[in-house]
Structures are given as C-alpha cells and as structure tokens.
Amino acid sequence: MTTRPLLRILGFISASAVIGLAAAFIAVMVRPELVAQRTSPAGAPAAVPQPSVSTPAVASPAMTSATEVPPRPPASYAEAVERAAPAVVNIHTARLVTERIRPNAIEELFGDARPRYRQRLERSLGSGVIVDASGHVITNHHVIASADLIRAQLADGRIAEARIVGRDPDTDLAVLQLDLQKDVPVMPLGNSDRLRVGDIVLAIGNPVGLSQTVTQGIVSATGRGQLGVATFENFIQTDAPINVGNSGGALINTSGELVGINTAVLAKNLGVEGIGFAIPVNLVRGVMSEILTKGRVVRGWIGIVPADVDEADARRFNLPQAGVVVAQLYVGSPAAKAGFEPRDIILTVNGVAVASAQDALTRIANAKPGAKVRIAGLRGNGRFASEVLVTERPRADNEN
C-alpha cells in the first residue's frame, strides 16, 4: 500500500526534470549568449567580437606614436588662393615709340632727302602685387621700365592709374602707387627664409593676358644666382609654370602668403622646361622699405666687378688659385685708389670668407657709404690686405 504513493511522487519528479531539461535545451538553442555570459570568469568582461576585414581595428596610443605619419597635404589650395589672389593685379603699360620711316628706292632717287618719322603705341603686359593698404604695388622693374602710361586692373575688375614711386634695376624691382580710395586688397607677406626645397608653392599672375591664372609647383632650389637677370641675384627656383605676363606676379605658400615675386623663366629654346625664378619676399621687403623712406635703394660701392673663377680657369689664366677674382676695376674708384688691381683674388671681406662673387658684392653693398671695409686676398705670389672707403653705388641710367 505504501509503494504506490511513492511511485507516484517519483514519477512526478522525473516528469518535472524532463520538462525542465527540455526547456533549458530550447533556451540555449534560442539564446546561446546566456551560456557564454555564465561561463566567463568572475569579474572578466564578456568576449568582444573581432573586427571584420572591412572594419579595421583602431590602433592603440602606443602603436600610433610608434608609427606616426605626417599629416597629408590638403586636397585643395582654394583657401590660399582666395586669400592671396585679390591682391594680384594685371599691369598694362604703354609707351609712345618714334621710329624713322625708311624710304623706298624711288623716294631715295626722286623724293625729299629729309628723314621722316612716325609714332606708334607699344603695349605690354605684366603682373603686380598690392602689399599695403595705401595701394603700393610691387612688380618687376623690367615690366614698367620704359612705360609712359601704367594702369592696373584688379581681380574685381576695377582699373586704377599707377605711378612709379621708385625703382631698383639692380634687383629688378619697382614700387608703384595705385590711385585707389577704398576697398584695397592686401597680400599677406610670408617669410622666404623658411622655405625648404620641396615645399609646395603657387604662382598667380597674368600669363599671356589670362588674368588671375594660378599654377602649382614646388620649391626646386633657393639662393640661385648668376642668371644675368639682375646685379644682385638670390632667386627661388620653382617648377610652377611661369609664362610671359607672369613677371611681377605672386609666388605664394599654401597659407596664401607672399614668398616671392615671379621674375624670370628659362627659355624653352634652351631645351629646358619648368624652371622659373622668383625674388624672395625678404629681399623685396628691404628694397620696398628703402624706396618708400628714401626714394631709392642706397648701397655700398668700391668700384670692382668680381667674378667666380674655377680651378680650370685659374690654371688657364695663371691665377694663384680659384675663387673670387677682380675682373674689372673702375678708374678713379675707391678700390683703384686703395691699390686694387685686376686679377686680384678676394679671400675675405671684413674677416669673413667670401663664398662667391655674388657674396662679395652683397657684403660690400650692405656696407654704409662713408664706412670702410677690410678686404684681404692674393696678388701674384703674395697676400694683400686693404681698407677701402665705401661710397654710394652709382644709380643706373634707367633708374631715374
């Protein structure tokens, strides 16, 4: 009698266990993460799925610093151009040219023997940069050298008369004054001494009459000279395309700051392409300051024309050594009075070794008129040292 109730109880427990196991099995099949959460160690975070190939993992701070990559350059330089371009002007010049009319054979035989002349208007194009709120413009001297009339066209279409404030043929720079009363755009000035070979630069100008043209390149070299463009040369070389009409235009950095005045390009008939030259803005600053304060650039002068001589030429001309040679000596000049002679080799100026003829010329030019410079060098088989009185460098004929 007692076994039957016991069997009923055991049957009920067994049935309950089977039902519970079945429910648990179904729950695991539907929600497997319940088992993963329960089987993790105490206090340990639940497992995070690994990123797929299409979603790369974020590098840890330590990994980022170990493989740090420099920032990429911007995909566009539109902001730099927008900042600088309004201050770049197109310069239109005109001059009245008088020329003699050549008579033909009949006129020579039967006509009036008196000469006849005709006049024509010769026009040219260039570029310039507005550098202050007073409307002063920097351009190349050769752009306005012979002009009787100068006009500047701004980026917004306004046209203004321009007059020459001063010019410096020795650096091929000139300062103009625009007749503008308001809303004068000004180009921010950079620091050309900070330029490095490989820096990206943009040229803005008026090539072949196409106003506000922008081209891109890099700084190919700095400190270029001996191009025969000007007396004092310290050019930035760039491969930014520069063409006729770009002279006097802006070379800017990627911040939209002026770093140079585009001046020259090597002729394509020489078999080269993509080589242009700009005057550094730091040199421009000095020239502009002198012109605005004194009306001209004052430089020291002793009356020599130095030239670079290499080892081959030194042997050829029987010179003591290669270096900077006095190629020409002006009669009656301070150097002539101090006993200088052609073929002298200049070693130092004021105790500092000269690296080139341009270096020697620049050091002398930087001396104030009335001061003395100490020059040491070689003459024949011996050495010499002289103190020379510095005078003001004579003005060029086309500087007046």
Overview of the molecule:
With 400 residues, this protein is of the alpha+beta class. It folds into 3 domains: 80-178, Trypsin-like serine proteases (Thrombin, subunit H, Beta Barrel), CATH 2.40.10; 192-294, Beta Barrel (Thrombin, subunit H); 300-399, PDZ domain (Pdz3 Domain, Roll). The protein contains 10 helices and 20 strands. It has helices at residues 3-30, 33-39, 61-66, 78-84, 105-110, 141-144, 281-294, 311-316, 334-337, 357-365; strands spanning 88-101, 116-130, 136-139, 149-153, 159-168, 173-178, 200-205, 213-224, 235-238, 250-252, 258-265, 276-280, 300-301, 304-309, 323-329, 345-349, 352-353, 372-379, 382-389, 391-392. The strands form 4 sheets. It has a 6-stranded antiparallel barrel. Strands 7-8-9-12-11-10 form a 6-stranded antiparallel barrel. Strand 18 and strand 19 (382-389) form a beta hairpin.
